[in-house]
Design a protein that fits this description.
S-adenosylmethionine-dependent methyltransferase activity, about 300 residues, single chain, Rossmann fold, alpha/beta, binds S-adenosylmethionine, disordered N terminus, Methyltransferase type 11 domain-containing protein, SAM-dependent_MTases_sf
Length: about 300
């Protein structure tokens, strides 16, 4: 059932992500630090957040589409970098079968603990703690390497793409999925004032290291000479309720952050929220965001 939003319920619904986003620093340089510090902040909030996205239909569909293009065979070895609470490990393990091997890597020990418990029944799946740009595996160990919603948070995405390519053998594939946060759109008044507010919230307000990474993945892949047949699979996240937009894609938290960063005034923040609540109440609320998967063949000379 669709939840009716009032200013009070917004606050209640927002608490989980607000506690995460409050930690965001003002400067772009610092913005990648947040997801690096899961264990030092409130790990349960982060785990709940990734678990919430696990249930999103758009995420389920886009991951499924990327798996279809990934062409995993029984017996393959796969690495899932920044695997979080293990969203995709069981599905990958089903694709490789018990003759294969699936390794999840995450920087957060808390995420690793949760993910390990979830795959405990599968001896061919394991999860290790570490940074995904420096894994302990030899060159060409894996058939497939992937990561989902990781590169937006890291300081140097190229280092991670290079590491994925290093550990993947020639003839293998790598796949990266990330959003283009700057593609965020909401239905609202067709006025210059509202356009300026949404530009400040969706474009000027930086809340992670690489907000436009999704649309630039091809460019990053192209820099590695061992990657060929680079292809893009786009997916549009469409949310029809304000509750979901806040819960899943942090809409009001981002608006609050824009105000904190002095990109919009308190009055503009209030106007924005009122418009969103009004649209939600009259059934015309719409929020969209594009997420991209970039997939390529590994071809080493
Ligand atoms: C947004 S979550 C996505 C998790 C998972 N891929 C999913 O789809 O549910 C990003 C994850 O990357 C992890 N992370 C951040 N920096 C990392 C790094 N340098 N190496 C490995 N994992 C990292 C975080 O701990 C977090 O679990």
């Amino acid at each position: 059932m669709t939840q009716i939003i009032t200013p009070d319920t917004v606050v209640e619904k927002e608490t989980m992500f607000s506690s995460i986003i409050d930690n965001y620093k003002k400067t772009e340089e610092d913005s990648h630090i947040l997801w690096k510090k899961v264990d030092q902040t409130k790990p349960t909030d982060f785990i709940q957040y990734v678990d919430k996205l696990t249930k999103s239909e758009t995420i389920i569909e886009l991951t499924q589409k990327s798996f279809e293009r990934f062409s995993v065979a029984k017996g393959d070895k796969i690495i899932d970098l920044g695997c979080g609470a293990g969203k995709d490990l069981m599905a990958l393990g089903a694709m490789t079968g018990e003759t294969g091997e699936v390794v999840g890597v995450d920087l957060s020990q808390e995420m690793v603990n949760v993910a390990s418990a979830r795959v405990a029944s599968q001896t061919h799946i394991r999860v290790i703690q570490g940074s995904a740009d420096a894994t302990p595996f030899p060159d060409n160990y894996f058939d497939r390497a992937r990561c989902e919603r990781l590169l937006q948070h890291v300081p140097k995405p190229s280092d991670f793409i290079n590491e994925m390519t290093r550990v993947t053998k020639s003839g293998g594939k790598i796949a990266v999925t990330d959003p283009d946060w700057e593609s965020s759109r909401v239905s609202g008044p067709e006025s210059a004032e509202f356009a300026a507010i949404t530009k400040a919230i969706f474009f000027d307000c930086k809340f992670n290291a690489h907000p436009s990474i999704g649309v630039n993945l091809k460019h990053y892949f192209k820099q590695n000479p061992s990657l060929s047949n680079i292809a893009i699979i786009p997916a549009m996240f469409t949310l029809n309720s304000l509750a979901d937009a806040n819960d899943i894609l942090c809409l009001f938290s981002r608006a609050d952050l824009a105000c904190k960063q002095s990109l919009i005034t308190a009055d503009q923040l209030s106007t924005f929220k009122s418009e969103m609540i009004q649209r939600d109440q009259d059934g015309t609320f719409l929020f969209t965001l594009t997420i991209f998967t970039c997939i390529a063949d590994v071809c080493k000379q």
